[in-house]
């Protein structure tokens, strides 16, 4: 089963504590949220 069909959203970012941190399909907004929760990407990775 495709989970996105059941949730009826294109993508979801869950925090480690289980709360929803982001829902949507805007990839730049997702990148911003990923940096907020996990820190900036290290150079060379």
Overall description:
- The chain has one domain (3-38).
- Helices cover 38% and strands 16% of the residues.
- It has 2 helices and 2 strands.
- A two-stranded antiparallel ribbon has the order 1-2.
Blueprint (SSEs and pairs):
Layout: H1 3-7, E1 12-14, E2 20-23, H2 27-38
Antiparallel strand pairs: 1-2
Topology as H/E string? HEEH
Low-confidence spans: none
> Strand order across the biggest sheet?
1-2
Shape: globular
Output mean pLDDT: 79
Instruction: Please tell me how large the radius of gyration is.
Output: 12 Å
Main sheet makeup: 2 strands, antiparallel
- The helical percent reads 25-40%
DSSP helical segment count: 2
What are the key terms here?
45 residues; two-stranded antiparallel sheet; 2 helices; 2 strands
């Amino acid at each position: 089963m495709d989970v996105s069909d059941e949730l009826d959203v294109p993508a979801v970012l869950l925090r480690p504590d289980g709360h929803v941190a982001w829902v949507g399909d805007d990839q730049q907004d997702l990148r911003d949220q990923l940096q907020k929760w996990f820190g900036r990407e290290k150079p060379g990775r």
